[in-house]
Amino acid sequence: MAPVPGPSNAIIEGGTASLEDLIKDTQRGVLVTRLWYIRSVDPQTLLYTGLTRDGTFYIENGKIKYPVKNFRFNESPVIMLNNLEALGKPQRIGGNLVPPIKVRDFTFTSLSDAI
Question: Where is pLDDT greater, at 8 or 60?
């Protein structure tokens, strides 16, 4: 029996907030606008790793202050969704329909020289 391919698209309903609203409601955080890649580290715990790329910014008192270096992350979508604070209006990205997601305690593990 041949393996069944996984889903090729994600569709997440999202909320009603704009990206600007999510930024405005952030006291201190990091805005990630693009990821370079995402790879599975541990399928049993759903741990993934990846890098931010071309659009990572420091937010303070509801305003984007300045660009920051890219980060490597290790995170599980289960943990990420458990730390969910807000969802914005869904946006089409490639074949996916996903909202901006605001989470607390996301696990950035190191800085990266990738640009």
Answer: 60
